[in-house]
Amino acid sequence: MDTAMLFDDKYEAMTEAEIADEFDILIKRMGLFKAVHAEVWGACVGVKTGKIRADRLLIPGPRLIDAGWKGGVAVVEFKKDSRQSTGRWIAQLLDYMRGVYDIGLGFKVVPGCGFLFPYKLAGGAEASVLAQNACGAISHEIYDFPGQDRTDHINFKMEGGTLLYYDFINDKIKKTRAQPMPGKKVGSR
Question: Is the pLDDT confidence value at 188 over 80?
Fold first, then answer.
């Protein structure tokens, strides 16, 4: 089993389009991103060149920035099939990180961080590679245990810690931290 990424089982029966719709609902509920751009075309620059399409670009809003968000624009890639190797997805996300995207009216953006959704980061060499390239995973988790408070939160996570933890029940940002600098050694590698 791949140790870097764990597919979130609650999404197993969903299509990629349904996963995208669920993600959009979650992001809208958060209210922390001032703009969400869907299926944005851009150009990959650097080692590889050519046209690329990001599933989502998230532009942080003032509340998120005031809470300490240092990730800049986030690129998000949706992945459906839990049986495929995550290596392909990581390579694709890294290509998206090297993209320049046209968000309309002549505005172009370059992502500062990238995430796979719906996944949970579990550590290992692949998670370290993601973190060194300012990438990670997004998971939505609901816990409802008898005798305990119900939790409903979304987690933007990179190796070494959580970049953003948002509590839907209390409309509260519980944690933000500066993202690791690309190229910085993170973890045991």
Answer: no
